[in-house]
Model the fold of this input.
Amino acid sequence: MVRPSPGASDLQQVKRLFEKAQRPFVLVGGGGWDRETALKLQKWAEAAGLPVGNSFRCQDLLDNRSPSYAGDVGIGLNPKLAQRVREADVLLVIGARLGEMTTSAYTLVEAPVPKQTLIHVHAGAEELGRVYRPALAINSGMSQFVSALDGISLKRGSTTAHDEYLEWSKPQPMPGKLHYGEVICWLSGRLPEDTIVAGGAGNFAGWLHRHFRYKGFRTQLGSTNGSMGYGYPAAVAAKLARPDRPVLAICGDGDFLMNGQEFATAVQYGAAFVALVVNNGKYGTIRMHQEREYPGRVYGTELRNPDFAAYARAFGGHGEIVERTGDFAPAFERAWSSGKPALIELRIDPDAITPATTLSAIREKALKSRQ
Done:
């Protein structure tokens, strides 16, 4: 595919703006990337000492262990990272559309004229200036622009952004006997670097985004428009397309039930991978909004769930239930080595609604605000 390239004057302006910048930030996302281009950008940012954030569900464009990696600019955003984006004097956006998810509902970057000096690079000319009026708009393919960055030599020294990311990604205490954040951290350290991780939509994904460190290019599958029911069928497709690659699906209970019948497809075609179903007995995101806006008034968000492990076994797959943190690792190893499509049901405390708070805390805060 033919892609546009940046002009010499564009690159001169990029260099001039970055040389004057005191608080620069780079935000990458979108499509059109390849492994070589992503690695080039990472090396350029590391050499320049620049912090780089990835847009919503594009965390796999940069090795999360890179000293330049600042975290994902999406839902459940690290407050320190949000502050970095808001206070950046130069914001270089490469490939991201700057939609609602990546801008925290258009609050990180003000429309139509941002406070930051915005340099927006996108392969689609129609995206440039559609919502935001950039100081510099560059219509370019990812490979073409990143290759041209080699001619811009910068040295800003070390950044604390990665340290803030590491601190943010540590699991927080949560109610119940099963600490979901610790499970995600264990998986992050256990899984091979080329594992494809497919996630659905719902509050359960907040723990995945916050605690899992993506190490390989394009190892994350996730719906960028937040549609539920995506994770499991995406994992089936990934395993069938790349049977040589390990695959993990992470689903919520309501999320899984939207397309859980695809377990039959996995069994029929031998797509052997492990799926986690995080069961809190509710549509958690909607329930969270209910408690925040109408505390105590619960309607239509409770779920009558099946025994998910028995559901998997009924199709001829491997199924387990885990209710304690310490039981997860051996259950996962059994599922991983079963040679079958496998499902592990994680029964978490219903009060655990995000990595940082609980439903009861949200309800209490909402009630106090009304007094």
Summary: The longest strand covers residues 117-122. The two ends are 60 Å apart (CA to CA).
